[in-house]
Design brief:
Elements (H helix, E strand, L loop, with lengths): L7 H4 L18 H16 L3 H8 L3 E10 L5 E12 L5 E8 L4 H17 L5 E8 L7 H15 L8 E5 L5 H15 L23 H16 L8 E5 L5 H10 L3 E7 L2 E4 L6 H11 L9 E3 L11 E4 L18 E3 L8 H9 L3 E3 L1 H4 L2 H15 L5 H26 L3 H20 L4
Parallel strand pairs: 3-4, 3-5, 6-7, 6-10, 10-11, 11-12
Antiparallel strand pairs: 1-2, 2-4, 7-8, 8-9
Helix pairs in contact: 2-4, 2-14, 4-14, 5-6, 7-8, 7-12, 7-13, 12-13, 13-14
Bound molecules: nicotinamide-adenine-dinucleotide.
Nicotinamide-adenine-dinucleotide binds next to β7.
Length: 439
C-alpha cells in the first residue's frame, strides 16, 4: 500500500477498505478521516502542497513479524507496527494497541492524531502509534509477555526515551508497559523508566496516570455542558466502552452529578433511567468480564446506546461508530470523544448540521498524554509528584486548551474539531519552519 499520493487532493483521501478494525463500524476508515481533517485545516491555514504532504506523511513506519511460541509448544506469527508520524516538536509519543484487526492504515491515522493532540496540549512531543494484530483475550499472560517482549525487541532500534515513548491503548495495560520497560532496560544494560508511560507506580509510573484520560474527558464534558447551559446535576449521559477510558469517565461524571443512564462494551449495553449504580456495575464487570447481565439495569442493543435521549454521549471504545448511517439519530446535545476517531467525516458533517456540539478526540481524550508527559518528566528527574499536584496540573491544562479551542472556533465560525486541528497543525508547521529543512 502506498502512502504518498501524487497531489494534495489525493493526500486528503484514502481508498475505502472494508471493516478491518477493532470492532469499529464496517464503513469506517480512520486514515481517510484523519487526512480529511488535516486537509480542512490546511485549506483554512492556506498552506502550500509541499507542507501539506509533509504533514500528511509519517516520518517513519516499521512493520515487524512477531513470532510467538505458544504455551503448547507450537509457534505462530503476528504482525506488528510502529508509526512515527512527526517529531518536529520533540520525541514521538503514542499508545500501543493489541486488537485482532489492527492494520497499518489504522496505526497511521492514530499516529497523526497523536501529533495534533500533543501540539494542541503543548506537550513537547510528536505523534506515534503502535499495534499488533492479535486478540489479547485469546492468549495466556505468559504468551502476552512473550509477544510483547519480542515486539519490543523488533522495534528497539526506533524507540527510546528521547526518540519514541509507547503507552497503553486498547488491549494493553500497565503490565504490558512494565514488560516493555524491562525488555528495553535489559538491552540497554541499565533501568530506563522514561522508555514508556502508563507504567505501574512501583516502577516509576505517575500518580493519576491510570485515570488521567477519563478525568480529562470529564473536565471538558462538564465545560461543554456548561457552555450549552446544562447543569451536571440535571444532565444525563451514555458512555460507549467500559474499558480504561469509559469506566472511569462514567464514574467521574456520576461523581459530578451527571446521571449516567447507559454504558456498553463489545458484548452489549445496559440502561437504567435515572442513572446506573456504577459501583455495583463495576463489581459485576470484575466478576463476569462484561456489563451484559447486570441485574440493576435493562439490556439494550449496543448500537442503540448511541441514539438514546441523553444530554451527553461519550463514545469511548473504537473508531467510526458515529457515521452517515446513525449520526442523524444521535439525540445527545453534546458528544465528547473519549475514543480516538469515533466520528467519521460524514457523521461529523451531519452532527454539525444538526447543531450537536462535538468535543473532538484530540482535545477530549488528551488527559492521558498530558499525564504521560508528567510521568516522563518525573521519571527523567527521578522525582515524583503527589496525586493532587498531578490532578491540578491536568485540570489546568485541559481547561486552558478547552478555552483556547472554543475561543479560536468562535472567533472564526469553525467547529471545535476544525479549530483544534488548525491550532495544532499551526504549531507543528511553525516548529517545522523554525527548524528548517535538512540539508
Ligand atoms: P480498553 O481496551 O481498556 O477498553 C475498550 C472498551 O471498549 C472495552 O470495554 C471494549 O469491550 C469496548 N468496545 C470495543 N469495541 C466496542 C464496540 N464496538 N462497541 C462498544 N464497546 C466496544 O481501551 P481504552 O484504553 O479504554 O481505549 C478506548 C479508546 O480510547 C480508544 O479509542 C483509545 O485509542 C482511546 N484512548 C485511550 C487512552 C488511554 O489512556 N487508555 C488515551 C486516549 C485515547
Amino acid at each position: 500500500m502506498t502512502l504518498l499520493a501524487d497531489s494534495a487532493v489525493d493526500v486528503a483521501s484514502a481508498a475505502p477498505h472494508p471493516a478491518q478494525h477493532t470492532g469499529a463500524h464496517p464503513a469506517s476508515n480512520p486514515l481517510a478521516d484523519a487526512r480529511s481533517q488535516l486537509a480542512e485545516a490546511v485549506g483554512l491555514l492556506g498552506y502550500a502542497d509541499g507542507l501539506h504532504r509533509m504533514l500528511a506523511t509519517p516520518r517513519r513506519e516499521l512493520t515487524v513479524a512477531v513470532p510467538l511460541r505458544l504455551d503448547g509448544g507450537e509457534t505462530t506469527l503476528f504482525t506488528g507496527y510502529r508509526v512515527q508520524h512527526n517529531f518536529s516538536r520533540g520525541p514521538a509519543k503514542g499508545g500501543l494497541r493489541y486488537a485482532p484487526n489492527v492494520d497499518l492504515d489504522e496505526v497511521r491515522a492514530l499516529a497523526m492524531w497523536m501529533t495534533w493532540k500533543c501540539a494542541l496540549l503543548d506537550v513537547p512531543y510528536g505523534g506515534a502509534k503502535g499495534g499488533i494484530a492479535i486478540d489479547p483475550r485469546a492468549h495466556s499472560v505468559a504468551e502476552l509477555e512473550r509477544v510483547t517482549r519480542r515486539y519490543t525487541s523488533e522495534i528497539l532500534p526506533i524507540i527510546g526515551p528521547e526518540r519514541d515513548i509507547p503507552a497503553p491503548d486498547i488491549g494493553t495495560d500497565e503490565q504490558t508497559m512494565a514488560w516493555i520497560m524491562d525488555t528495553y532496560s535489559v538491552n540497554s544494560g541499565y533501568t530506563v523508566p522514561g522508555i514508556v508511560t502508563g507504567k505501574p507506580i512501583a516502577l516509576g509510573g505517575s500518580q493519576g496516570r491510570a485515570s488521567a484520560t477519563s478525568r480529562g474527558v470529564t473536565h471538558v464534558a462538564l465545560a461543554a455542558l456548561a457552555h450549552v447551559g446544562l447543569r451536571p446535576d440535571r444532565a444525563t449521559a451514555a458512555v460507549q466502552g467500559f474499558g480504561k477510558v469509559g469506566a472511569d469517565a462514567a464514574r467521574f461524571l456520576a461523581d459530578a452529578g451527571v446521571a449516567v443512564e447507559a454504558v456498553s462494551d463489545m458484548y452489549g449495553a445496559v440502561h437504567r433511567a435515572g442513572g446506573l449504580d456504577l459501583a455495583a456495575l463495576t463489581d459485576h464487570v470484575r466478576a463476569t468480564g462484561t456489563v451484559v447481565g447486570f441485574p440493576g439495569a435493562d439490556s439494550i442493543d449496543g448500537a442503540a446506546l448511541l441514539e438514546l435521549d441523553v444530554d451527553l454521549l461519550v463514545p469511548a471504545a473504537v473508531e467510526g461508530v458515529i457515521h452517515e448511517g446513525n449520526a442523524g439519530a444521535v439525540r445527545a446535545r453534546v458528544v465528547v470523544e473519549g475514543a480516538n476517531g469515533p466520528t467519521t467525516a460524514a457523521g461529523d458533517r451531519i452532527l454539525a448540521e444538526r447543531g450537536v456540539l462535538v468535543v473532538p478526540d484530540i482535545l477530549a481524550n488528551a488527559g492521558g498524554v498530558i499525564v504521560s508527559y508528567f510521568e516522563w518528566v518525573q521519571a527523567n528527574q527521578a522525582y515524583w509528584w503527589r496525586a493532587d499536584e498531578v490532578e491540578a496540573r491536568l485540570e489546568e491544562r485541559m481547561l486552558s486548551a478547552w478555552g483556547h479551542v472554543l475561543g479560536y472556533a468562535e472567533a472564526r465560525g469553525l467547529s471545535l474539531r476544525t479549530a483544534a486541528t488548525a491550532l495544532a497543525v499551526e504549531r507543528v508547521a511553525e516548529a517545522h519552519r523554525l527548524r528548517g529543512l535538512y540539508p
